[in-house]
Design a protein that fits this description.
With 117 residues, the chain is α/β, with parallel strands linked by helices. The protein has a single domain, classed as Transcription Regulator spoIIAA (2-Layer Sandwich). It is built from 4 helices and 5 strands; from the N terminus they run ββαβαβαβα. Strands 1-2-3-4-5 form a 5-stranded mixed beta sheet, sandwiched between helices. α2 links the parallel β3 and β4. It is globular.
Length: 117
């Protein structure tokens, strides 16, 4: 199933609701949305509740977008991943670089708890 992405805003945080698979080719829409958001609002929550599969190229793209957000003083947080996605993040050790939350509300709230340098 092709990836579909809906955008919500909570304060200064963008929430991207993803539905489908994050794989090579289908990840272009997600990449473009996030890259366009980075200059103005580098606080992004990627809600993965509707994602049942992430391919290796999709994982690479997520890491690239996380680095881009951090380079702009922001962050990319993951929310609501299915157990198989959590396991994928564990197996690839990406759970050590991504912050994962049970839901979008917790992820958005965590932005308020971050210290400003």
């Amino acid at each position: 199933m092709a990836l579909r992405v809906q955008t919500q805003i909570s304060g200064d945080v963008f929430i991207l609701l993803c539905n489908g698979r994050i794989v090579f080719g289908d990840d272009t829409l997600l990449r473009e949305k996030i890259v366009n958001m980075l200059p103005g609002a580098p606080k992004i929550v990627l809600n993965l509740e509707g994602v049942d599969y992430i391919g290796s190229k999709g994982l690479g793209m997520l890491v690239e977008l996380l680095v881009s957000a951090r380079n702009r003083g922001g962050e990319l947080k993951l929310a609501s991943p299915h157990e198989n996605i959590k396991e994928l993040l564990r197996r690839t050790n990406l759970d050590t670089i991504f912050t994962v939350y049970d839901n979008s509300n917790d992820a958005v709230a965590a932005f308020g708890k971050q210290r400003v340098a």
